Description:
- The structure is a homodimer.
- Chain A has helices spanning about 10-25, 35-45, 70-80, 110-115, 135-140, 155-165, 180-195; strands at about 5, 25-30, 50, 60-65, 85-90, 125, 140, 145, 145-150, 170-175, 210.
- By secondary structure, chain A is α/β, with parallel strands linked by helices.
- Chain A has a single domain, classed as Rossmann fold (3-Layer(aba) Sandwich).
- Chain A has an eight-stranded mixed sheet, with helices on both faces. In chain A, strands 7-8 form a two-stranded antiparallel sheet.
- In chain A, strand 5 (about 85-90), helix 4 (about 110-115) and strand 6 form a beta-alpha-beta unit.
- In chain A, helix 3 (about 70-80) packs parallel to helix 4.
- The longest helix of chain A has 15 residues, at about 180-195.
- Chain A starts with a strand and ends with a strand.
- The model of chain A has no long low-confidence stretch (mean pLDDT about 95).
- Chains A and B meet through strand 10, helix 7 and strand 11 of A and strand 10, helix 7 and strand 11 of B.
- Strand 11 (about 210) of chain A pairs antiparallel with strand 11 of chain B.
Amino acid sequence: MTGITIIGTGSMGRAIGTRAVAAGSRIQILDRDRTKARELAEQLGGDILTGTVGDTPDGDIVVLALPFEAAKEVVVSYGDALSGRTVVDITNPVDVSTFDSLVVPPDTSAAETIAGLAADGAAVVKAFNTTFAATLAEGKVAGQPLDVFIAGDSAGARKAVADLVNAMGLHPIDVGPLRRARELEGFQFLMMTLQADPAKQDFNWNTGVKILTPA
Amino acid sequence: MTGITIIGTGSMGRAIGTRAVAAGSRIQILDRDRTKARELAEQLGGDILTGTVGDTPDGDIVVLALPFEAAKEVVVSYGDALSGRTVVDITNPVDVSTFDSLVVPPDTSAAETIAGLAADGAAVVKAFNTTFAATLAEGKVAGQPLDVFIAGDSAGARKAVADLVNAMGLHPIDVGPLRRARELEGFQFLMMTLQADPAKQDFNWNTGVKILTPA
């Protein structure tokens, strides 16, 4: 099993960590605050490496479990240290001032923006942006394993993330090139407007998007 | 039950007609070729009005079961005759020459384009663009009623379509303003790339996108 480094200890870092423990992955957790990394590692259980942002990533797969602005900063600050690794962007860059669009222009995506800032040898992959944290920690909704949509320009990096997702007990769907992140971010933005709508009592940040296939 | 006029007798016209019969709706089918309209009406069964494109729509809800270019032409040719009606755009304006983007710019949508061409008093609604024809005719996938995402700037028109969708035995999801069609069209484009991918054996234009909620 490929090692995974999770940068960030918020709800998504915790959820991805929970799944990574279930997968039996070698795990490293980094946070700006080393204490937070240690606390999350203890809560998740198992033998988890911890450290601060800036430490050399242990994992071949580095998950930026951070908001968009922080993810950009971390990619820039790591520079060449991310070369040769698969860097997973999970962000949904919603303009929270209006909740009516993303902060990235419609002809690009957060994932492509982050890829533009990353070192040449880093393979940026979009994944886990359509899985809400509570649902992801659970791994399923309504008895069905979560779909995890994976976009990236490196087929090898997409495969590495898909293998990890499978090991996590989830269902990977390879959607092709990184620019497909535009559609993934757009759709999840729409999903988020539904969760935030008080008229939609069924939607409480705990739903899952699933492609159903005939039985 | 509100009456529904279906313009177009292709696979989507047939599927929506099938659901409308199941709903017990008053139905009118129009096609450029009156014979095709009559044939579909006979196949669907029941007491269905038929005619040619250009005839006055009988339904309060007019479904453009047409490709994007044809839908634009029909809206322009009808002009004020669509005033006071709910006009449903179902299109997915995929650039089939590349299968890598839509033909509409990323800061708009087919639905908004059609609304821009429609008479002032016509309320354009996006719906049924994420339901493939075979799946829609069936009404469900893997035992689950299909989700039908509905976007439009008129709350009354969205409600009218949602009521129809409910009567069809499907699950309406009101996603708000017509500009949300950007995200709906984008996501369905991504879905279509998956169906068209020979490596994805599970996807054969018969899947359904569903928002799962906790049991």
